[in-house]
Amino acid sequence: MNITGHEVEKLEDPFGLLSGDRYEFFLELEVDIEDELYSENGIGLKVIFVSDESEEKITNYYFYERGSDKVLDFELEEDEEELVLTYCKEHRVE
């Protein structure tokens, strides 16, 4: 799995109830044709990334089929989650 592009938006907390900053990432993924996650339409990953004073983490994510936005029932492997976390840290917006 390779990340080939993304869209990111900083989410606003209008009531100030949540600590830290939250970002919504839509990652474009390149998946090997042999992978069970593969789709001819392409695969995306929606990620909610949180950055606060004590840590940076992924709080939620899901895979989806691009074009149809159909949610896919797959989980990130440990090394893939680390890749996504690092990517989000490097590409967040202020």
Care to describe what's here?
This protein is 15% helix and 45% strand. The protein is mainly β and 94 residues long. Strand 4 (56-65) and strand 5 (70-72) form a beta hairpin. The model has no long low-confidence stretch (mean pLDDT 94). The chain has one helix at 78-91; strands at 2-11, 21-30, 43-51, 56-65, 70-72.
Low-confidence segments, ≥5 residues, pLDDT <50? none
Q: What's the total number of strands? A: 5
Q: What separation lies between the terminal Cα atoms?
A: 27 Å
The proportion of residues forming helix, as a percent range, comes to 10-25%
Structural class: mainly beta
How many alpha or pi helices? 1
Which helices and strands appear, and what pairs or packs with what?
Elements: E1 2-11, E2 21-30, E3 43-51, E4 56-65, E5 70-72, H1 78-91
Antiparallel strand pairs: 1-2, 2-3, 3-4, 4-5
Which features does this protein show?
mainly beta; elongated; 94 residues
Question: What's this, in brief?
Answer:
The chain is mostly beta strands. It has one helix spanning 78-91; strands spanning 2-11, 21-30, 43-51, 56-65, 70-72. A 5-stranded antiparallel beta sheet has the order 1-2-3-4-5, with helices on one face.
